[in-house]
Amino acid sequence: MKRREFIEKTAASSALLSLGLSLSSFESSQKRHLTILHTNDVHSYIDPFPADHPRNANMGGVARRAALIETIRKENPNVLLLDAGDIFQGTPYFNYYGGELEFKLMSMMQYDASTIGNHDFDNGVEGLHAQMPHAKFEFISANYDFKNTVMDGFVKPYKIFHKNGIKVGVFGLGIELDGLVDKGMYKETVYNNPLETAQDMVRILKKEQKCDLVICLSHLGYKYRDEPTKICDLKLAELTQDIDLIIGGHTHTFLEKPTVVKNLAGKEVLVNQVGCYGINLGRIDFYLDNDKAKAFEGKSIIV
């Protein structure tokens, strides 16, 4: 067995053991399997890194990511493909095409939804709006209020997906724009408290809509060592209930497998992020039985 395969299998098994579960406990005809694939902070990296790059030689690239996604969909057709924002800015492709190419390629790969990152405002809220016709997937952000902007009506607070008999509620959260993005770029976009917003979303998705899984697409950042009080994915997981998975972005954090955090009710929440530039593809497999018990495998796959 190759070293990378061994590491991936070990990480996946460790994730299951951390919950005190094993796949054997779900080996019945009644189990339902859902695969979550995710990216974040791709930043307009369309091509692989060059062969002489000092750190990421030959890594990434949309073509390889698309092939990998297609292979996984053949294994399990019940897939949700999600992105945690900062689709834009980082290569000349964005400077030249303004985001059109990124949205078209994501649509070709059949992304289901994305949240909005701070760099997605780099051509202004009007620039983001201009590219919306090229996106055949949902934009989800619950704490950005676009009511008084041209983006009004183009972004939903949440979306419910039905896959293999599993009802999945996905909501989005964005980082505070003030001080990070020029006011002239985001204009009248209103930032609302992400913790309060998350609690509202969970109430709707879990209590009212009775979702089996609740996923947050977050561009808040994984953790801030120098700003311990700043809201981040780890704090969001600790201070809420009924979120099963937080898919993060913004801090370009490379995790080999999801971090498991205890929430307010003492239950486990998965927090994952796969770095940046499309180098990795996150994969998390959920297994649910008829009693809604859950097991998971999680890993980061090098593209």
UniProtKB/TrEMBL annotation:
One GO term of the biological process aspect: nucleotide catabolic process
CDD domains the record matches: MPP_UshA_N_like
Pfam hit, one: Metallophos
Domain Calcineurin-like phosphoesterase: residue ranges: 34-253
Presence of keyword Nucleotide-binding: yes
UniProt similarity note: Belongs to the 5'-nucleotidase family.
The protein, known as: Bifunctional metallophosphatase/5'-nucleotidase
High-level lineage: Bacteria, Pseudomonadati, Bacteroidota, Flavobacteriia, Flavobacteriales
